[in-house]
DNA sequence: GCGGATCAC
DNA sequence: TATGGTGATCCGC
């Protein structure tokens, strides 16, 4: 009110919409979808309509808040840059050039890597089954569109757009219900064809990298001929069209696949010049790993395209520590050079890190309703975990407040306590929720910060549970035949405060039995969706647990493709890559080596990769392994990028060790048995085993945790990385039976 | 280990 | 009226 400008907020033309908001809500920047050519509506028109329909919603208000916060970050970055420039030494470009030189030496143009991406995937799957949809404007997903047919994209409809808005853009638009089975089936068919051309690494249900190097050599054909054949065969056998990008690495292929999308392809010659020329003009946002925030920050200091990275390398160097996780210096330089990983490998069962289920509902503060959601979510999650045969040590509750601001609250019962059952999930979920509800008024009374507004009564629009720090029960049980014990132990999870948990649990039980039929999904619909997609991802390859995970980050710098994704639909199929090794050497300042980038989001770290290298023969104690790990990166180094890497590596190793432990337990047989909690191996009666296991729950400290042996991993440094061949052996832990 | 932020599909 | 679900990584505590 006290604002200077006496502009009255009368009904009419309130303040004009901010450009950043227009872009955020319906911007062309989202270019993922081919809204460009042949559009029936102009970008401005689309933005205007979307803005009009959205502007009064809570969602919009939240987006405005985020927009403001982002703007603050941009201003801050600009300020830092200005500050740094005052004291710049003048050798910034030299520093950057030194790194460029170093990165350049890692360039490998010897491989032919393709990224295949199905066009409007879910939509195409529906058309395949129902030809009448051909050419029609429709979306898939119900209330929220997961994708839109090209016919609908002409009007501006896109992925992640709510149906009611899409309808404003395209009045005759219809929205189809999700049919997971359709997508999973189509995905398998596509991948089956791809497999005939080389090793593949699915990045999601509709995307996969294919290494065409060998195919080209064997058939004596050019990459263009190979990809032309591949796409033709995919269409001939599946009836679906795919777009493809081909180049010496995944980073470039990923971007290239978008160039001639729908039903098109783009091949980049395997020369340094071709790679660099191609990427120079690419808009930053098109690069895997550079999202809205990163793009905005870079735009803020004057960069628009990949080529600008070189032009402004001195600036980037100066603010290298303030670019955020998605834009590390080294990652950007690698991008500029058109470098990327080129190893194509698929992820395995053991690479999954979490399982989760979340549900959005009409915002409510009703404790009973919120509790019910927790129960339903827990039930769904328990089913998924059981099916997949995984248990986990940490349960995380996610609450999205009515104003769209979300928070997470985690609980780890004990160092060796693994959960999987419905009751445990509900108990912990309710405990976390109630704690949040109960603490809220107190915090507010004390004037402390809380998310979701200042109302002491929590009002949520979504609740979700996720289980992490997983353990592969299948491998464990198979090896030790202790499946029953494992369950028993997890069920007896100790403590868990909550005196009121009793009542809660009780209610749970009731609900447990009866299926919820009640509202929304609950049933077949969505739930099935998740389960199906998940299996899809893993099923095919599900094999052992090891695998290599994917992306590592460092290296050449980027690996966009590393992929991540998997999400949308299931998760499972990730791709993995290996890369060269590279380790660390950079000096202090620049450094970012590590994460070069990609990590952004998704993707599998590559922990398993090493673990797979050798059968479980040679072994070293955990301590040694960790020591080696830390050594690789840099010990207590600071947060410099290098540190990032080291840190990441270490985590990966720890994880690997956990798996190794399982592996180690495997050999048990005869009178030998392995404690499902501490993994120690004993020889003795069942009674003895029972007694030992019970000790774990007697008090918090379990019996002495044995040192675990792990096999030595191949040097993370150099040569190690690659070798894909030897890897396989150990994996067979679970064999084919995965059915789930 | 936890929680927030980013990113991808 | 009205804006999803799933999973991963990084960073700073
Ligand atoms: N926010 C999103 C984005 C995508 N998907 C799902 C539906 C898509 O069909 C599928 C593949 O996503 P893509 O990004 O590859 O997009 P499309 O294949 O739909 O279209 P395009 O032709 O642009 O690749 O993933 C989703 O559920 N949620």
Describe the structure.
- Helix content is 43%, strand content 12%.
- It is an alpha+beta fold.
- Among the domains are: 78-105 and 274-337, Orthogonal Bundle (DNA polymerase, domain 1); 352-510 and 566-576, 2-Layer Sandwich (Dna Ligase, domain 1), CATH 3.30.1490; 592-605 and 669-697, no CATH class.
- It starts with 18 loop residues before the first helix and ends in a 30-residue tail after the last strand.
- 49% of the residues are buried.
- It binds 2'-deoxycytidine-5'-triphosphate (DCP).
- 2'-deoxycytidine-5'-triphosphate binds next to strand 1 and helix 5.
- The structure holds a DNA duplex (9 and 13 nucleotides).
Layout of secondary structure:
Blueprint: H1 19-26, H2 43-54, H3 58-87, H4 92-104, E1 113-118, H5 121-129, E2 138-140, E3 147-148, H6 150-153, H7 163-169, E4 174-176, H8 180-194, E5 200-204, E6 207-211, H9 213-219, H10 223-238, E7 242-247, H11 250-259, E8 265-267, H12 272-280, H13 292-300, H14 307-311, H15 313-318, H16 329-337, E9 345-346, E10 354-364, H17 367-388, E11 390-401, E12 406-411, H18 422-445, E13 460-472, H19 473-480, H20 483-491, H21 501-513, H22 524-538, E14 575-576, H23 607-612, E15 620-621, H24 622-632, H25 641-665, E16 672-674, E17 681-683, H26 686-698, E18 709-710
Parallel strand pairs: 2-4, 7-8
Antiparallel strand pairs: 1-6, 1-7, 2-3, 5-6, 9-14, 10-13, 11-12, 11-13, 15-18, 16-17
The chain binds a DNA duplex (9 and 13 nucleotides) through helix 3, helix 7, helix 13, strand 10 and strand 12.
